[in-house]
Protein 1
Amino acid sequence: MKYSILSKRILHEFNQIRNLSQSKRLVLGIESTFDDSAAAVIDEDGKVLGESIKSQMLEHKITGGVHPVTAMKLHEVNLPLVVDDVMDKAGIDFQDLSAVATATQPGSALSLQAGLIFSKQLVAKHRLPFIPVHHMEAHALTVRSIEEVNFPFLVLLASGGHCLLCLAQNLGNYKILGQILDEPPGAVFDKVAREIVKYLPPEYCSTTSGGRIIEALAKKGDSLKHPFSIPLTGHTKTVRSRSCNFSFSGLQSQVLRKIAILRERNELDIVTCQDVAASFQKAAIQHITNQLHRGIIFCQIRNLSQPSPILVLSGGVAANSCLRESVLNICNKMNTKLICPPIHLCTDNGIMIAWAGMEYLKQGIGISEDPENVRYEPRSPLGDYIGNEIIKENIKLPKVKVSWKRHI
């Protein structure tokens, strides 16, 4: 990631012009990469002065998925509302802000466009510095707003749009160990959940996410009932199987085929749905932890991590309690400290964007010299991919004993 540098002189002149009354710098963060309009104001110590989020879940539930044009129009309506709400909660005026930070990459093109247009109008009107933020980097940095985490550290991001294992070496400096090859885990959890709830009582068809539906069903299911194949482990001599990349489309096909077979046999009821959910969740989590395990070993082989390594687990899928327990099991075996941000900070939010902006503001870098010419980027890698180096190491995973009980 490359950013233009705002000189210390310009920052000094800006502060003189503003004659800021507050003793600490404040950043307004704006998030609109997909289907949530969110904003927050945060100070340089990580204190949240105000936060607001407007979900589009109800509107998109009608169409069975997020429609890009609908999402864009909702952002256009909601962003001014959430920003006004945040400023009211913070009890400040726009002239009290030190900068505005907005997620400009990656994400849904029309959603990014809505957020960027709104932000450009805002910074132009109030003559504020503007900091473009990488959405995935914001996820990675969030934990540093609440806990002291020094570079370098490992980051596992699992969400509805991404699955990524990377080494955070510094601001804007990331090495990608593993990335998603097809369908991200959150999207697959949602698709499986949408199919399963067709055969469940109405109370299961709530406004909650597909991931939460699967987790709730899995807690009462038999995870050994349906032995779904773990992705990228079927052919142990292929290069794909010795990487840290993630793949969920094959697992999704297995699960949907199983549901179709059970439907044809008239065997789909609450119990069978619980068993399918538990078996699916088990396979998905084992795949994620396998790739994580290999990544930790690689970092140790190459001396890329600290003497006491740290792993940050974030993203919407990280809210899954079974995933957290399984990742913790791997971390304990590998002498790695696991840090999970609070669940409300794992999903997309304005706080993470504001904090990422604050990190760059503190360093005096990443601030746009010409906000009007900033562009959004729907596809934007967080850093350099070094997965081929992992394949060269040909790391065979040691066996890890995992207890998958009926009630997980």
Protein 2
Amino acid sequence: MSMKTLPLLFINLGGEMLYILDQRLRAQNTSDDNTHKVINDIIGTMFNKGFMEELLVPQELYSHRALRTVLTRLAHASIMRLNPASMDRLYELMVMAFKYQILLCPRPRDLLLISYNHIDALKEFVKDTPIIANQVDETHRKIIEMYTPLSESEFQLLRQTLLIFFQDMHVRVSLFLTNKVQNPNGRFALPTTGPVPLGSEVPGFIRVFNSRGKEMRRWEFPTGGSYTNPPQEGSFELFGNRVIRLGTNMYSVTQPDETHTSKSSSLKDSSVPNPLAKEELNLLAHLMGGMEVESLVHSEICFRVNLFSSDQEEEQASASGEGVASLFEVISIQATQDVQTNTELARIVEEFAEEGSQSEGPSSKGDDLLAMMDEL
């Protein structure tokens, strides 16, 4: 079942990426035209038909390094650039937001509602660009077709797979710390009260039934919490009220300086991607590499998004080789061009390509898909 986890992971992380970038671009008074272009280009690349078809093919989860490589390529699909340290910061913000949503997920099946909230928000971002909006709708239909038939146990396995993937990520986020949903050690403080999952009863009663199913005795016991009946079920259709708020934009009412992060423990991430994912990573890296992004560097004024409070902090993070130092804070935007990210990404992709070429089959498949992307 982990083979069906990647599309949900990618869509939800991509949705969080767009929330963060949109909030920061607007907070720094970036022009509406540039903000609109960045958002539209990233979503258009993310929901490109060829890329999504490959993403929806059942496959194993990538390592964090591999996933970060693909998301870096996605973030650079427009005139915006991030250096490696800022990309690490962005990745950590995305991961911690989605991890929190998974932990609070009332039922395993509600993973879909979280994903649909992200998709609904992306549709709103591109509502004035019908071509991209149609791409998002088409992917949404495929997600509905792929995941609706799954059983509750299969969704539980999906949820556990995602939680295992994120288990070593304990990055402190000031927004979570302020709202007291995260402890100083980076672990989340989950509520033990509130609405119970749909299909469950409010705890506090013990019932005894006879052999014919008739209730014979009932008594109450103290639950130690305050529980309420669940709200109505959210819509799993293409359009509708999702009911739950998980997956919606939590930055829309946040001040620009409220989203600092700091590291409480380092991520245990192998420098070598999961061997089972090498072939598909090679395919996806080349697939996204087929987009003509390099020409943007020369034809338009690029700007770099710096996810630290100053250039000095960003330079120190880059020099130390760490994505986040213990006290670094968040975000300013500068109208400068960053070539380092493209060089580093090209090096990583080249490594994957060399590894993939040692086996039969995938290289020709990747070439065919790359050629298809070049024709777009």
